[in-house]
Design a protein that fits this description.
The longest helix has 16 residues, at 169-184. With 225 residues, the protein is α/β, with parallel strands linked by helices. The protein has one domain (2-224): Rossmann fold. The strands form 2 sheets. Strands 6-7-8-3-9-10-11 form a 7-stranded mixed β-sheet, with helices on both faces. Strands 2-1-4-5 form a 4-stranded antiparallel β-sheet, covered by helices on one side. The chain is built from 7 helices and 11 strands.
């Protein structure tokens, strides 16, 4: 699904991630952990083609990212939902319109036949807030709206960059449960988090795997990849 082969990424100041070789398998649940500045966000950006490795190889859905055009990458991203830590919305548009934006951008006129907007809003607990503007939402509501927007295209992969970083424990559990439900529906989930309590909670519900980033390298369950 996503395959790194000796892939490295460097900023102007030097190498951040070095010679990563790992495969993200379909239907799995992954946590990405590591200290601040270790490269968690960079890794996730590579997973949806926002960044290219400076060396090595990266394939997404079986295609070499370096050989894909910008249009190819845009089409590929329809199968990947992304939740950023800092949710960005268009403030003068209501919750419903913001959630539906990915459909408009991708040129789709309606939802997937298997997905009903009212059901989606109910699922994330925003049924009564569909007409609210983003500035009127709490932090937890914004994150749930971001999750709804990320899954509106029925993507195969969900990438979440510390979505619980700015909410309390109760809301963290609620967001995690939504991601677990998506995983049980067959979606691949990659969740960046430094919260060990959240990881332990997830492991009691799904077979979550932990990717650790340290010293420019990624390890899985203690094994150097």
């Amino acid at each position: 699904m996503i395959e790194f082969d000796a892939a490295s990424y460097s900023y102007t100041g030097g190498e951040l991630l070095s010679k990563m070789s790992l495969t993200i398998t379909p239907g799995a649940f992954y946590f990405i952990t590591g200290p601040s500045g270790s490269g968690k966000t960079t890794f996730l950006k590579m997973c949806y083609g926002a960044l290219l490795p400076n060396s090595g190889k990266l394939q997404i859905f079986g295609r070499d990212l370096r050989k894909m055009t910008r249009d190819d990458i845009a089409l590929m991203r329809r199968n990947i939902g992304v939740i950023h830590q800092e949710c960005q919305f268009i403030d003068h548009l209501n919750v419903t319109t913001n959630i539906l934006l990915p459909l408009s951008v991708s040129g789709q006129e309606k939802l997937n036949d298997n997905l009903n907007l009212k059901e989606l809003l109910t699922w994330v607990g925003l049924k009564g807030r569909s007409g609210a503007l983003p500035p009127e939402l709490s932090g937890g509501e914004r994150q749930r709206a971001a999750l709804a927007r990320a899954v509106i295209n029925s993507p195969e992969i969900i990438l979440a960059d510390e979505p619980t970083g700015n909410v309390d424990w109760e809301m963290s559990q609620r967001l995690l449960q939504l991601l677990i439900e998506l995983n049980k529906m067959g979606k691949t989930v990659l969740l960046a988090s430094h919260d060990l309590s959240l990881i332990r909670l997830a492991k009691s519900h799904v077979q979550a795997r932990v990717l650790r980033i340290a010293n420019k390298r990624i390890t899985l369950a203690g094994a150097d990849l």
